[in-house]
Amino acid sequence: MISLHVNIDHVATLRQARGTPYPDPVWAASICELAGAQGITVHLREDRRHIQDRDVELLRQTVRGVLNLEMAATSAMVERALAIRPDVVTLVPERREERTTEGGLDCTGSHRGQVAAAVQALGQVGIAVSLFIAPEASQVRAALQLGVPRIELHTGHYCDATLDARRPDGRSKERADAELEHLAAAAEEAVSHGLHVAAGHGLDYNNVRPVAAIPGIEELNIGHALIARAVLVGLDRATRDMLDILQSVS
Question: Engineered SS bond to 41: which of 22, 68, 173, 224, CB 3.0-4.6 Å?
Answer without folding.
Answer: 68
